[in-house]
Design brief:
Alkaline Phosphatase, subunit A, 13 helices, eight-stranded mixed sheet, globular, 2 domains, six-stranded mixed sheet, 387 residues, alpha/beta, Alpha-Beta Plaits
Length: 387
């Protein structure tokens, strides 16, 4: 049976621990899935039957029955543990150097240029929690109209603004300018618009927008598009790839909207890839170290997966993975270097253990192999093992 559609879903930050180089990233012992298992009444029957708890290195106490899909774990080759690097590797890029980070804030020449071109003063310019930074600098921002600029251990500049001070369009304008300024040696992975409103302690609102660096090399999206296949992006996928190689984009503001969009696309006639990101696990729960909320969000996705699987066509394939970890019970508030799961299901997919794969890019290589298109990017296909 020839595959017509592949639905590739990224559970953003859903790591499964066990990265052999975790200590090098300061993340030894981190394990996002283990932290979720320890929450009360955690139950994910659909991910379980796909084989999640049969994956090597995962706690087998929740394993139940014989998996209906192929399952394995993926190690990250690239130097990083952020969304940009993770998604790029899933799409076939190996990044041998990490994107730049700014633990002491951005250099004066970057700040001065942003202030000059936006006409607004830069406030903060330090690594900060997104919720704490608006508490600390919100009042000064309201008085001066300055941009609350902050970063993290990831390669990112985030710019927060209160909607009483500037419009969403003005915030986006300033972020686009920052994206242009952050080039060359200062080319961070993403510039992120972070709108907020209300009274102190203020509240972040919908309208986040990521301005990503352009992928430095060809990706599976480019190859699919070149060969006349659809490349449909859902969630922040279009942002992460700066629109390159994307034939159709659907932005979302929540996991729920992402699920609704994916269900809609399941009823659409196309041939190619639907690439979905569910971001709430990371931004709403992982970074905020909310294990209970994270677990509830995973269970909500699991309930939806039941109907999605039931309505798949016989020539569809589902692939589920993650881009990094963000252990909600670990120290700090940042991403964690972890292995990620790979679950694969379809009428043509053999239920088997794919073991430990050496790169996230094995996904891209396999997608190209399934669609029978030339592939010379990073990764090794496992098509012949599963189909």
């Amino acid at each position: 049976m020839k595959t017509k559609r592949i639905f590739l879903m990224v559970m953003d930050s859903f790591g499964i621990g066990g990265a052999k180089d975790a200590a090098r990233f300061g993340d030894e012992g981190s394990d996002t899935l283990r932290s979720l298992i320890q929450t009360e009444d955690f139950s994910i029957p659909n991910l379980t039957r796909l084989g999640l708890f049969h994956i090597d290195g995962v706690d087998k106490r929740m394993a139940d029955g014989t998996p209906i899909g192929a399952y394995g774990r993926l190690e990250e080759m690239s130097e990083g543990k952020d969304s940009t690097i993770g998604h790029w590797e899933i799409a076939g890029i190996y990044a041998d150097e990490p994107l730049p980070t700014y633990p002491d804030g951005f250099p004066a020449e970057i700040v001065n240029e942003i202030e000059k071109r936006t006409g607004r003063k830069v406030l903060c310019n330090k690594p900060y929690s997104g919720t704490e930074v608006i508490k600390k600098y919100g009042e000064e921002h309201l008085k001066t109209g300055g941009l609350i600029v902050y970063t993290s251990v990831d390669s990112v500049m985030q710019i927060a603004a209160h909607m009483d001070v500037m419009s969403m369009e003005e915030l986006y304008r300033c972020c686009k300018i920052a994206r242009e300024v952050l080039s060359g040696e200062h080319c961070v992975g993403r510039v992120i618009a972070r709108p907020f409103n209300g009274e102190y302690p203020y509240k972040r609102i919908a309208g986040r927008h990521d301005y990503s660096a352009t992928p430095p090399k060809t990706t599976i999206l480019d190859l699919l598009q070149k060969n006349g296949l659809a490349t449909i992006a859902v969630g922040k996928i279009n942002d992460i790839f700066a629109g390159v190689g994307v034939s159709e984009a659907h932005g979302t503001s929540s996991n729920e909207e992402g699920m609704e969009t994916a269900s809609h696309l399941l009823n659409k006639d196309f041939t190619g890839l639907c690439f979905v990101n569910f971001v709430d696990f990371d931004t709403v729960y992982g970074h905020r170290r909310n294990a209970i909320g994270y677990a509830e969000a995973v269970m909500a996705l699991d309930r939806w997966l039941g109907s999605f699987i039931e309505n798949m066509n016989d020539d569809d394939i589902l692939m589920i993975t993650a881009d990094h970890g963000c252990d909600p019970s670990y120290l700090g508030t940042d991403h964690t270097r972890e292995n990620v799961p790979l679950l694969m299901y379809g009428k043509a997919v053999k239920p088997l253990n794919l073991g430990t794969r050496g790169s996230f890019s094995d996904i891209a290589a396999t997608i190209a192999d399934i669609f029978e298109i030339p592939y010379d990017l990073n990764g090794k296909s496992f098509r012949n093992e599963v189909l």
